[in-house]
Amino acid sequence: MLRDALFYPQRGPGWLWTVITGSLLTLVGAVLFVPLIPVQGYLLRVLRSTADGRPHPPKFEDWGDLFVDGARVIGVQVAYLLVPVLVTLGGVLARVSGAPLLGSALLLFASVAGLASAYLLPGALTRLATTDRLTAAFEVRVIASVARRPIYVVAVVEAYVALFVIAGLGGVLVLILVGAVFAFYGQVVGYHLFARGYAGAIGDGQDPMHRPQTAAE
């Protein structure tokens, strides 16, 4: 899936303008937070479009909806990562306060909780995208059952590889335009893979990009 997904942002008419728009928003967002909100809204559209089996990435349009969707995405991300972050802070404070055993235990728990949250978060976001219900992102039992499917495991691992390598490189170079391009491009690839894993896991186990109806579109 990863090799195919690397070219996903380049498909369809107007793809270059989409990448330029997302890259510029990412670049400005390195200084001002607000431009990152529509970027997150766009990534939610990537999840929705991919889960529906559409071969081309969406475009930046309907900016009001992009801001609303982006705010919802950020809310879900914060909710899923809040506990690991707070426990990590507690562990650090415990260690510097003279309770190393408690601090180590808290840091270990935070690591496990962080990995679990990072693994379930793609399913939560894709569930939000496909149902358009914020509460669906917190139906942990449903998401966990989806996360056990092999196609979800493979897709999420490949997505995080793309995010850390491509988007991570962009994070290092974010103060220049080429870094913003890497950062945005890597996120689109990663979220595309998230949706492919979720859609395949919740359905018939088949990659939505390889279903017969996709080829007909």
From TrEMBL:
Judging by the UniProt lineage, the source's domain of life is Archaea
Q: Does the keyword Metal-binding apply?
A: no
- Has the keyword Transmembrane helix been applied to this entry? yes
- Which InterPro entries does this entry report, sorted A to Z? DUF4013
Q: Which UniProt keywords apply?
A: Membrane, Transmembrane, Transmembrane helix
Q: Which Pfam family, giving just one, matches this sequence?
A: DUF4013
Mind telling me which residue stretches traverse the membrane in this protein?
12-37, 73-94, 101-121, 159-186
What protein name is recorded for this chain? DUF4013 domain-containing protein
